Amino acid sequence: MQQTKEITIYDLAKALNISPATVSRGLKDHPAISHATKKRIQDMAREMGYRSNNFASNLRRQKTNTIGVMVHELNSSFITSVLSGIEKVTTAADYDIIIAHSSEDYKKEVANASNLFHKRVDGLITSLAYNTENLDHFEPFIQKGIPLIFFDRVEPQYPGAKVVIDNMKAGYDVTSHLIQQGCKRIVHIAGSLKRNVYADRLKGYRKALEKNKLAFDESMVIENDLSEVACVEAAKKILQMKPRPDAVFACNDFAAVVIMQALTEQGIRVPQDIAFAGFNNDTIARLSIPKLTTVNYPGIQMGEIAASHLMSHLNGESNIMQTSTVIIKSELIIRDSSLRKK
User: Fold this and answer.
1) How do the domains of the chain map onto residue ranges?
2) Which parts of the sequence belong to the HTH lacI-type domain (predicted)?
3) What is the Cα–Cα distance from 128 to 289, expressed in whole angstroms?
4) Which one is the CATH code of 65-165+299-329: 3.40.50.720, 3.40.50.2300, 3.40.640.10, 3.90.1150.10?
5) How confident is the model at residue 298 (pLDDT cuts 50, 70, 90)?
6) In the CATH hierarchy, which top-level class contains the domain 9-52?
7) What is the bridge-based pairing of β-strands 331-333 and 294-296?
């Protein structure tokens, strides 16, 4: 099939018998062009199927009005809410976003970073993949002066602003709550301890045990990839522990619910035999039976703050490469899965 030729301002000028400069100004609603002429130009543009070439125009200005957003997954209500917050701010500032996701894979994250760099994004907002080994793939952005903002999963020592919650405090609060319910043998399901979020939640767990004079036992920490298969295996391991644990604190809600369901099928009562708590306040936490105690992760606020900082930098109002870390407040939500003391 023959490709239709792209209509240019020169084609419009020829059809209207006016100068290309007048057409250009008329399309941009320039005050020097009369209302009647603007209407003629815009009507002809619609009739001929003219599309403005924003890309070429932006390249001339060394700006694309596009923000890259790299996330580690898309099937998460937390990530969806972060994207919603980012989109709200960028749309108001007349920026588009390009979303890329790594599917928790370092190699794909590297490829996504390269792709967004070559698409000439004006800035990048990102959350690291589960198995990211180093951050060399962000060096081209730094060398070009393209601002970086990391959220949720961050590398604390790396340049660029970070937007996080206090994961250590949240882990401490969850574990303390379980201890207050009479639990003494608490299993912690951790994600990759290379990532700040999981390492800090483990630190909070350990701090709460220490504060309540309970010994830390390495065998009570199960580190896995938080997949369904891995969590079913974790449930089997919990069943084999002697003496049996009386609580599980999982570092995300999906892992908590998978393990809770697997144990329930083996006759374990929740919370009477084993109390449960998760993390993130995903939809699954409200739908599980019993409903899951969790930590509310303010995703929309996180997205808005990350995008607002980026817009402020792009507008010359701040330098985010000198900004350290923004910590936003999270909240423990207590539900039936952990309430042993009514």
Assistant:
1) 9-52, 65-165+299-329, 167-296+332-338
2) 7-61
3) 32
4) 3.40.50.2300
5) very high
6) mainly alpha
7) antiparallel
Tell me the pLDDT of the chain averaged across its residues: 91
pLDDT of 164-199, one tens digit each?
A: 999 999 999 999 999 999 999 999 999 999 999 999
**Confidence class of residue 61 from pLDDT cuts 50, 70 and 90?**
low
> What are the tokens at 132?
């990211």
Looking at residue 237, what is its pLDDT?
A: 97
Angle in degrees, 0-180, between the axes of helices 77-92 and 299-314, rounded to the nearest 10? 30
- Residue 341, pLDDT above cutoff 80: no
- Torsion sign across C-alpha atoms 300, 301, 302, 306: positive
- Relative orientation angle of helices 196-211 and 167-180, to the nearest 10 degrees: 40
With a CB cutoff of 8 Å and minimum separation 6, the contacts of 335 are 285, 290, 291, 292, 293, 294
Query: How far is Cα 200 from Cα 196, in angstroms, rounded to an integer?
Result: 6
Which DSSP letter does residue 291 get? P
Distances (CA, A) of 27 to 17, 48, 51, 94, 181: 16, 14, 11, 18, 67
Q: How many CA atoms lie within 13 A of 226 on its CB side?
A: 22
pLDDT digits (tens, 9 = 90+) for 15-31: 999 988 888 888 888 88
